[in-house]
Automatic annotation (TrEMBL):
Signal peptide stretch: 1-32
Annotated protein name in UniProt: Chitin-binding protein
Domain Chitin-binding type-4: 33-198
Classification via InterPro entries: Cellulose/chitin-bd_N, GlcNAc_Chitin_IntDeg, Ig_E-set
Location of the protein in the cell: Secreted
Keyword Ribonucleoprotein in record: no
Transmembrane segment boundaries: none
Main location as per UniProt: secreted
One GO cellular component term noted in the UniProt record for this chain: extracellular region
Keyword set, alphabetical order: Secreted, Signal
Source species, domain of life: Bacteria
PANTHER family: CHITIN-BINDING TYPE-4 DOMAIN-CONTAINING PROTEIN (PTHR34823:SF1), GLCNAC-BINDING PROTEIN A (PTHR34823)
Amino acid sequence: MAIRRLSRLAVVGLAFVVVTALALVAAPPASAHGYTNAPISRSLFCKQGVVTNCGPIQWEPQSVEGPKGFPSAGPVDGTLCAGGLSRFSQLDDPRGGAWPTNSVRSGQSYQFKWHLTVNHATTDFRYYITKPGWNPAQKLTRSALDLTPFLTVPYGGSRPAYDITHSGTMPSRSGTHLILAVWTIADTGNAFYQCSDVRFS
């Protein structure tokens, strides 16, 4: 009788373990960090469903984390928007230049915004833009970018708020361009990368 009871308990315990394991496999990863919401990034457009066929980034717009040190180090060319992560490669696909754009103006005072889900100790936030004549139908490379950031916001290792705004000025451009925002973490070897398509009117 005792053996039969122990067997039943073992079966119930095993079933619980299997169900829990399956739930963990089926659920999207819970890691979370941050994304830009002004200008709206490719990651956020995917989360909002404005852009479809995005892959797992639609559940994790905050998780584009790659090696820091950009532009001398960091993700390789052609993988910058995905932070070098193959599972987010849809962010690097130029889609023939058809990504939705944020409307901006040259010389405009602009409020650059991030939503963070983990506020890591931070070195800085840097904002880069593509050079005049950039082709939006091509993957982003260092040679396509002005590698001097047009806005740098230092944090010196402090932790930013969960919703932050950086005041800056839009560079002088015309037509469609790409802004690469890089959030460099102070106490790890990584940074977070966000690409936002903009159109200068």
